[in-house]
Amino acid sequence: MMTKPRKNLHKLMASVIGLSLLAACSGGNAGTNNAPSNEGGATDPKSTVSKEGMPIVPEPITMTLMAPDVGHAKWEDMASLKEMEKLTNIKLTFQNAPSESFPTKKNLVFASGTYPDIFYGADLTAAEQVTYGDQKVLLPLEDLIDNYAPNLKKILDENPNIRKNITTPDGHIFALPFINSTAVLYRNPMWYNGAFLKALNIKELPKTTEEFYTYLKRVKTEDPNKNGKADEIPLASVKLTDLRMYFMGFWGMYNEVYYADKAGKVHYSPQEEAYKGYLTFMNKLWAEDLLDHDTFSQTDEQKAAKVKNNQVAVFDAFHPYMPFQVEPNRDNPLMTLLKSEVAESPVYGKHPGQSSYGQFAISKTNPNPEAAMRWADYMYSPEGALLFDLGPEGTLWKYTDKATKTKEFLPVPEGKKRDEIRGTLTPNYGIVPPGINLAETKKGLENDFDLFFKEELNTKIVPFAKPPMPNVFLTPEEQTEITALLSDLNPYVEQMEAKFVTGQEPLSGWDKYVAQLKKMGSERIAEIYQVAYDRWNSTK
Amino acid sequence: MQSTPYPTQNASQPESETQLPKTTGRQWRRIARNWELYVFIAPAFFYFLIFAYGPMYGIQIAFRNYVPTLGFLGSKWVGFDHFTRFFDSYYFWDLIWNTLSISFYELAIGFPIPIILALAFNEIKTGFFKKLVQTVTYAPHFISVVVMAGMIITFLSPSNGILIHMLEWVGINPPDFLTDPRWFKTMYVLSGVWQGAGWGTIIYLAALSGVDPGLHEAAIIDGASRFQRLRHINIPTIIPTMTILLILNVGSMLNIGFEKVLLLQNPLNMESSNIIATFVYKSGLVDAQYSFSTAVGLFNSVVNCVLLITINQIVRRTSQNSLW
């Protein structure tokens, strides 16, 4: 009794499915045919966009902006963006995603076919710029820069290296960088807990890996936080990602995946003999409980709690007072780079001068690319850099002498931190925005800590630093191969690093590990990047 | 039932073909006569059509080098390239083994425990105690996966986890549950039991409430012990429910709680926590290799389907219950 009506239903379902498939097919066709027709806007300059001066457009226009967000305030309410809207006549609607999930969101947006008008602080990797530029999702910007970006054009003309770094192999510029010629760091450096140094009466910071080991050993056994408990954690980390690059420099490697050495030879770090030195040392720290045994299972919050609790001797932070949640001070010195058994050590992978990533891009569906370019160009002017770094005058700061651009900070309301307020005024907080870092922005505002920070970097890091690799672009074919190779290699390397460090895999397994890497195609990484590096070197 | 106007089983092939249009007409008339039933089923039907069958159109990107701007049909056809890459991958056997072993482990532990628990609940007579125990066992079900993973990590932290301290207190030297690959699967399965077992009893309790009290009375008069009544009355009553749930569990076996595995994963336990679903997520959404991850996902679905059909066959042969 049951079977027959069911058979009916099956037939009905089958036919409907068939129909729906047909419908879906034709739908897909329509979609792909429509796509290219949107491109016209790029080359057709709108006469209403003024080439200089504000406002950019006489009649208000609206654009959608996609950006990562650290959640301090709604972007709609930020004083800098409101001021910018008043100035330019361009109203923005925001598509924000939390910064930790932004890379995923970005991929989804690129795959969805519906793009925001502009990408802001979006960290478009070289791979993404090439891929989506090649697919014509991102507009080529070089003509727009020449015609609608006087500030940026001036910077690029004065610094041909920057132009070289943002130009893809086929001569296009798809994304704009954050230019920071004074930048040294692009990862958090490591710091010593000053209270521990004082308690153990350390006059001179460790200079070699051996001395460093001895210091950590003393932290472990001599109770430098004086609470009578052996709760000190000499070195804290989350999955080693926070200290890896800093520490690999002690064995002469500039970066964790690939880098060019001083002679211009490209290396794939995880199969270098030097990398084995790094693993051996970290394994020793682990075995003697000097490296936190929660390293591979804890979260960032758990680690931060331990630092704040005054349990940790060496930790990573952008500014060393931040994890302690106190006002800026000179108490905690920067970790000196350590010399190891490797002759050419230590080294440091320095920030390449402008952010290696694309922080601003215009999508092909933007109806007003000229206006968008002028909007972005403002970030590269002194006024724009100031507005987006510190907010409009009268919120956080005021001029003491407008002619020399000298400023002072306004008093901060009780119970608030200046940096937190800044996070509610401008979007350029916790993300890397497009724009430029100019000395005059901070004129008169530098405090004692800023001077200390600069001094620490200049004496301890700068003499050993070199960018690991210029911003080389790969061709789409090279890029596809690299993506496939690295998506296979990276998890294996990460897994084996953890095993070697914790001793789950003895270091005698090194040769087997290198053989497996080679089997997975690791040698192609250095080869491909060598070609790209040589190509970069030969362009003018 | 006798009046169903279908060609009989022994009708010859050509005959049934010529009768086809006529049959279709009669079917439509039948549908029209019972239209209310079809209205009832329509929402579910369209749900599956739109959200389960419709998107299958996109599976073709597993056989292409998918480029979003070129669309599904415009992207280059590469056949089985992505499948070959997956089969040759260093991770292939690890992925298969982890996915299958976690699934079977979960099924072996997670399937019987709710049954035992339900039978036990059914024996509790006092109202307050019964309600208390049930509420306590149901409660973890309502904790979201993210919070659950956070709790597991905090409780099992080698330096200050509460469970670790408890083990140390009773004199056991605790293993590194979070980072030792040998413990990952047990940790995953047992925390799943803790979270899901109580909730899983509900359907069995419903089945048990259908037992005719007369049967128990008769058994008591015959001098049957509690355990004998459990064995000969309660268990046979819930066997049909058990078989159906078993088949359903097997059907979704390879769709292991992906979020939980991902949240508990770390480089040290990767060799036993890397499963197909997390691999698809990483290669597809993080690395943006859409075609490759679709191929891997499709492979997962095919294996799932084969498993479901196999179990269904086995169950049909051994008992009278089956999905189809």
From TrEMBL, chain B:
PROSITE patterns recorded: ABC_TM1
Pfam families: BPD_transp_1
Membrane topology annotation: Multi-pass membrane protein
Any one GO cellular component localisation term in the record: plasma membrane
Domain ABC transmembrane type-1: 96-311
Single Gene Ontology BP annotation: transmembrane transport
Intracellular or extracellular location(s): Cell membrane
Location of region: Disordered: 1-24
SUPFAM superfamilies found in the cross-reference section: MetI-like
Keyword annotations: Cell membrane, Membrane, Transmembrane, Transmembrane helix, Transport
Gene3D superfamilies: MetI-like
Protein family according to the UniProt entry: Belongs to the binding-protein-dependent transport system permease family.
Protein name stated in the entry: Sugar ABC transporter permease
Organism: Paenibacillus herberti
